[in-house]
Amino acid sequence: MLRIAVLASGSGTNLQSIIDACESGQIDGKVVLVVSNNEDAFALERGSKHGAQAVFIDHRGKPREEHEKEVAAEIDGHDIDLIVLAGYLRMLTSYFVSKYKNMIINIHPALLPRFGGKGMHGQKVHEAVLDSGDEESGCSVHLVTAEIDGGPVIGQMRVPVMPGDTPDTLQARVLEKEHILLPLVVQWFAEGRVRFVDGKAIVDIEDIQG
Ligand code: GRF
């Protein structure tokens, strides 16, 4: 059983999708730890309601690495196999990323490598997609490396951009897919299907039927 930690700063609907998939048996795992840098994050309530340890760790007034060491102490205390960033609005230093090499994934609400990088989060992503004139968008789950949104992509799902879309309507369409993609990728980890070779993610999938 995969022991999962989720780091989240906000509402935590993606966290909920993982919790639900664990409880239904779609994921052979359990969310044992939820960490937030935001005391009011609803993600903390979702975690504690479902048996995870939910911990608020304030980042304010601390050097970035000191905050990360406090987060790492929680992770190390819970024997974690996979760390999922789900709306976690903190950049991670190379200290944290290299300590948990190939163990941290993030969900991003666009088709990386498009519309990623510093400052590209929340509504800004969907605004940029609409400004670009792209006819499709989607979501990506990728490995977290020291480069923001730059690690190998593990899985993506696509949605059309519709005439008359606003950032809100596009976000809602993408979020629906996030809630499908993220549990799927977490289960790939639980099954040991994900490998990283030469900076690329390889997912071993058998029995694909067309
Ligand atoms: C999602 O759009 C996710 O792609 C991004 O942050 C948002 C988090 O939403 N990284 P929620 O807190 O999971 O509802």
Describe what you observe in this structure.
This protein is an alpha/beta fold and 210 residues long. The chain has a single domain, classed as Rossmann fold (3-Layer(aba) Sandwich). It is built from six helices and nine strands; from the N terminus they run E-H-E-H-E-H-E-H-E-H-E-E-H-E-E. The strands form two sheets. The chain has a seven-stranded mixed β-sheet, sandwiched between helices. A two-stranded antiparallel sheet has the order 8-9. A hairpin with a 2-residue loop joins strand 8 and strand 9 (200-203). Helix 1 packs parallel to helix 6 and helix 5 (123-132) crosses helix 6 (167-190). It binds 5-O-phosphono-beta-D-ribofuranosylamine.
What would CATH call the architecture? Answer: 3-Layer(aba) Sandwich
Hetero groups: 5-O-phosphono-beta-D-ribofuranosylamine
The dominant shape is globular
- SSE series: EHEHEHEHEHEEHEE
CATH homologous superfamily title: Formyl transferase, N-terminal domain
| Biggest β-sheet: strands ordered side by side in the sheet | 3-2-1-4-5-6-7
Measure the end-to-end span. Answer: 30 Å
What's the CATH class label? Alpha Beta
Helix content: 25-40%
- Total strands: 9
Number of domains: 1
CATH fold-level name: Rossmann fold
Q: What is the residue-mean pLDDT, rounded to a whole number?
A: 96
DSSP strand content: 15-25%
What structural category characterises the helix and strand content?
A: alpha/beta
Unreliable residue runs: none
* Alpha plus pi helix count: 6
| Main sheet characteristics | 7 strands, mixed
Question: Radius of gyration from the CA trace?
Answer: 17 Å
